[in-house]
Amino acid sequence: MPETRPAALWAPRAWLTDAAGEAGWRERVLLRIGADGRWSEVTADVTKPPAEAQVLAGPLLPGIVDAHSHAFQRAFAGLAERRESDADDFWSWRNRMYGVALRITPGELRAVAAQLYVELLAGGYTQVCEFQYLQHDRDGRPYGDPLELSWALADAAAAAGIGLTVLPVLYERAGFAQPRLRDDQRRFAMGAADVWRAANAIASAGRPLVNAGLAIHSLRAAAPESITELRRLAEGFAGPIHIHVAEQTAEVEDCLKATGARPIEWLARQGLLDARWNLVHATHTVPAEIDAVAKSAAAAVICPTTEANLGDGLCDLPGWLAAGVRLAIGSDSHVSRDALEELRWLDYGQRLVLRRRNVSAAPQAGTPSTAERLFSRAVKAGAAAAGQPAWGLQPGARADALVADVLDAPLLGLPPERLLDALVFSSPGRPWRDVMVAGRWVISRDRHASQEAIARRFEGAMQAIWGSG
User: Fold this and answer.
1) Which of 185, 203, 104, 186 is closest to 147 using CA atoms?
2) Are residues 424 and 290 in the same domain?
């Protein structure tokens, strides 16, 4: 594109969010960008673009938040797809993944994360929530700066131009009946006070496009008293809180044995859940748990491609939707870095098990489009998961946007009103021609300005990681 920071955009069509939070297509939209990188004006039905506006080559949509990421696992994507023994499941995958966690250096993490973040931008994500439990040096000792690895992620995000929410993770034991970490978990140790200090240090550092939240790895990895302590410290905290929960049936069974309650049931009984909470995976639930989450205003973060890759199971998507629970999406282990693929498989998994089509559509509520319903929910819930008070193509929100490539094969000749349907459910292509973050074009005509240099550093990091043992 001719300039990286336009003063205004004019889109033939745009997916706008109105003052009531409802989203939909509007025609001939003018969007002005303030000096702060936020939308200062969004006006539909502007017939003639003003001279200062950049006329876009296709429809404009809001950027999507990747609500759950482990950046270092990008170095492992595609390398766990062989079975050398009689059984392979989440737990055997986890043990192999720890090998990467034990090897990677800050410099290698910076290179791997930068490559990942460029790929996420190309996949439609403009903000990523890093569930950051990789904390210490390879021998388990703290770095001189305890946030060495978090700053590596922030450096990578700056190089790519993506927004970043860092979530330091409470992680202190190997399981309900294992009060200490295993040796291969030595880089993860972090108590409640450490998490609170880390989040405050990240938030106060003043890095552009970087904010912080809090995370608890899981109920199996954090003692109840530590969760209670973090809750006390965060009493007035307005940012997001994330936790892995009910991803595996074995986790549910162990929680029942240790506490007498299922994981989400336990969180609800303790009165922990509120609108700040984001329950990652939430795969194995019962209706009473979904009802409890809905009453608390907490959200679920579903990661369909990772959950499929790991054999986790399928969440009760109809139950979550019927209860009105906010639903965000995440790329988690990064076997896919494409937001549209996550949305596609969110519904496809349900179609396979229920033997029905368009499970997520709600014609009775005026939303017959599966893609539009899922996309709108992911955009809205993702913003809250990232601690963003405003999001989308509306005044006051950060100026993040995606320009659809109407010349891409899956979109050729389609009726404009069916664009989202085709983006999500037609053959995968390269749907985003241009990507904007905070008023700057970070991808123009399918190209990131630093992609070659970032890719070279990534290749070097991969060779170092996989040549070391």
Assistant:
1) 203
2) no
Same domain (yes/no): 120, 16: no
- 216 lies in the same domain as 114: yes
Pair (113, 174) in one structural domain? yes
- For 94, other C-beta atoms within 10 Å of its C-beta total 14
Q: What is the pLDDT of residues 250-295, one digit of tens each?
A: 999 999 999 999 999 999 999 999 999 999 999 999 999 999 999 9
Q: What is the pLDDT of residues 64-119, one digit of tens each?
A: 999 999 999 999 999 889 988 888 888 888 888 999 999 999 999 999 999 999 99
The answer to whether position 1 is within a domain reads no
Q: Which of 256, 271, 385, 244 is nearest to 325 (CA)?
A: 385
| 294 Cβ contact list (under 8 Å, min separation 6) | 323, 324, 325
Tokens representing 48 are: 């003639």
* Active site positions, annotated: 281, 332
Q: What is the pTM of this model?
A: 0.97
Q: Which residue, 274, 275, 215, is CA-closest to 245?
A: 215
Q: How many domains does the chain have?
A: 2
Looking at residue 18, which CATH number applies to its domain? Answer: 2.30.40.10
CA-wise closest residue to 60 among 21, 15, 24, 1: 15
